[in-house]
Fold this sequence. Notes:
Layout: H1 2-5, E1 10-16, E2 19-24, H2 31-40, H3 48-69
Antiparallel strand pairs: 1-2
Amino acid sequence: MNIVGHDMGVINCGLDGVYLCVEYDLRQLTWKQVEHQALLAGIEFPGVLSAIRRGIWRFTERNELKNLAHWSDASCCNHPPGGAK
């Protein structure tokens, strides 16, 4: 846990029973990097369900990073243009 907790971008790291709980800034660190450090520290992620969860999380992160890369301050359905009545 100390190895994972010292990475740049990790805000909070701890154990909740058998679960590794990591709060991190996605702009500085990705789950894939957290996983890599956890594996180096000897933390295992057993089972198919765990692999599926981690895969979904990595997919979600990729989408979030792509959305951040193409962010614009344009009008959209949640923010109508200023002057519209």
